[in-house]
Amino acid sequence: MQFSDREIMADVFVNTKYVSANYHRAVLESANDRVRDTLIQLNNEEINLQKQIINLMHDRNWCEVRPANSSSGLWQAKGQGRGPDAMHYQMPY
């Protein structure tokens, strides 16, 4: 099975989100300033990579980047009641 460029880029993007989340968690748990600063630098590089991937995918019309809606507030709740989506919040864009 061969994957398309679009599928590969989507997979890379999902994986960079996972790596960034783990860097962030490590920063919060780091007691050593030198280690913490290194993890922050690595996370910032990962965030920049994510932005480059999104820009590339957007340029190729593989994803839609919607503008923020300032009238909807900062956070929007997704889902109702209980279950995995009950406490999931997402930005309005």
TrEMBL record:
<dbReference type="InterPro" id="IPR012851">
    <property type="entry name" value="Spore_coat_CotF-like"/>
</dbReference>
<dbReference type="InterPro" id="IPR012347">
    <property type="entry name" value="Ferritin-like"/>
</dbReference>
<dbReference type="Pfam" id="PF07875">
    <property type="entry name" value="Coat_F"/>
</dbReference>
<feature type="coiled-coil region">
    <location>
        <begin position="25"/>
        <end position="52"/>
    </location>
</feature>
<keyword id="KW-0175">Coiled coil</keyword>
<protein>
    <submittedName>
        <fullName>Coat F domain protein</fullName>
    </submittedName>
</protein>
<feature type="region of interest" description="Disordered">
    <location>
        <begin position="71"/>
        <end position="93"/>
    </location>
</feature>
